[in-house]
TrEMBL record:
Protein name: Heterokaryon incompatibility domain-containing protein
Residue ranges of domain Heterokaryon incompatibility in the record: 25-114
InterPro entries, sorted: HET, HetReg/Transcr_Mod
Pfam families noted in UniProt: HET
Length: 114
């Protein structure tokens, strides 16, 4: 979601789409810095957590691409269920198999190094 301030909370809406019928989107690749803690992201009105590195990348994407309008971003930590139940594990397994296509079909791919 757009925001004029870089440090504003990250807000997003999840849009479900197939690869064959998806809107234009940016795919984000970043390092999972699991030792740094978590940052809250508001997604569809609910709180999710992402790594600080992911949050920094999303803020920069918002600053560059979406300062005044919404931009579609695919990021694994948000778009793939990170839960530990059977459904989440099944989804993650299926999504990992198509990640190459997710990146291939993106209009832009950002490799965030931090």
């Amino acid at each position: 979601m757009p925001s004029p301030l870089l440090e504003s909370p990250i807000r997003c809406e999840i849009l479900e789409a197939t690869l064959d019928d998806s809107p234009n989107y940016i795919a984000l690749s970043y390092a999972w810095d699991s030792h740094e803690g978590k940052v809250s992201v508001i997604c569809n009105g609910s709180c999710l957590t992402v790594t600080p590195n992911c949050a920094r990348a999303l803020r920069q994407i918002r600053e560059i691409y979406g300062k005044w309008h919404a931009v579609n971003v695919w990021v694994d930590a948000i778009c793939i269920d990170q839960g530990s139940d059977t459904d989440a594990l099944g989804e993650r397994s299926q999504q990992i198999q198509i990640m190459g296509e997710v990146y291939k079909r993106a209009t832009h791919v950002i490799a965030w190094l931090g």
